Amino acid sequence: MQVFNLLDYFLRIKDTELYCLLLKNIGRFYLLDETTNYRTREYLDKGINLGNRCNGIECLHINDMICRIFPNPKETKSEKFQDFIIFYMQKENFNENGEVWKMLKENRRFLFMLFLKPWEFKDLSHIAFLIDKSNLIDPIVDFILVLFRNLNSKMKIIAFASLLGKVAKLRKSSYQEDLIKKILNMKINVNLKIRILITVLNDLNYYLKHKYILEIKKLAKNVKSNEISALIFNFCEEIGFKKEECIEQDSVEEGV
Fold first, then answer.
1. 22 Cβ neighbours under 8 A, 6+ residues apart
2. How far, in whole angstroms, is CA 112 from its chain's centroid?
3. Mean of the pLDDT values across residues 72-81?
4. How far apart are CA 83 and CA 212, in angstroms?
5. Alpha helix positions (H), the chain
6. What does the mean pLDDT of the chain come to?
7. What is the pLDDT of residues 151-176, one digit of tens each?
8. Cβ(142)–Cβ(179) under 8 Å?
9. Which of 191, 13, 39, 164 shows the shortest CA–CA distance to 91?
10. How large is the C-alpha radius of gyration of the chain?
């Protein structure tokens, strides 16, 4: 089982922090499962033995792991293996050629679901790079475009749009234009469409920003939202439009 392979790997490289983090996240669940109970106890014993020989910060990791697996019932929290992987992928020493990444690539369904939580990650450029390496760009982009029609959370929408921009940045200009056109053709709320377009364009080249800001301003003609107007104004300024050109949108709205 991959989880136990990971635990063995962390023991080999003597990474007590990750060993304890993984074990405390899956320990209670695996102890309750008859098929994994025995092996889980073995790894708990190994952790406790480490605790008998450790000092300083390692002891804190081991004690935290033990307290999490055998807590006061009122303090029990439900955590997932996915939370561990998200933490691991955020670590500076994450190695795309390492054992963890090899194991993840063997389970494309899990990897696909992991990448669809962009708000969990601090460095989306790194995640976009891994998506590219996993050959999952096309299905993930298509799935995100479908999600835009059904999401209500502004935070998640912005996170997905930001991920799209960073993924598109890794591709050729023709791919980037195709993506922008797909977003333009989506049948979704205009305010939402403008927000997504600007977020995606933020990661693309000047030519595309300059070309599609004109499309965005056309979309915004009948939009009466100070937030969207400010978003467009700031974007115009960032790509070098004159102030008069940036506020042209507002004068159009006032005449409607």
1. 3, 6, 7, 10, 81, 84
2. 11
3. 43
4. 38
5. 2-12, 16-32, 37-53, 57-69, 81-90, 99-106, 108-115, 124-133, 137-147, 154-168, 173-184, 190-201, 206-219, 226-238, 243-246, 248-255
6. 80
7. 888 899 999 999 999 999 999 999 99
8. no
9. 13
10. 24
Q: What is d(CA 233, CA 153) in angstroms, rounded to the nearest whole number? A: 24
Q: What is the pLDDT of residues 6-28, one digit of tens each?
A: 888 888 888 888 888 888 888 87
Report in angstroms the alpha-carbon separations of 167 from 47, 114, 146, 176, 247: 39, 15, 16, 9, 31
Q: Which two tokens stand for residue 194?
A: 């403008």
DSSP, res 220: G
pLDDT 10s digits, 88-126: 666 545 666 777 777 777 777 777 877 888 888 878 888
Going by C-beta distance under 8 Å and a sequence separation of 6 or more, which residues neighbour residue 95? 101
The Cα–Cα gap between 144 and 140 comes to: 6
Task: Please give the pLDDT value at position 165.
Answer: 96
Indicate the residue type of 130. Answer: L
Residue with tokens 């403008």: 194
Contacts by residues 118-123 (CB-CB < 8 Å, ≥ 24 positions apart):
118/159, 118/160, 118/162, 118/163, 119/155, 119/156, 119/159, 120/86, 121/86, 121/89, 121/90, 122/90, 123/90
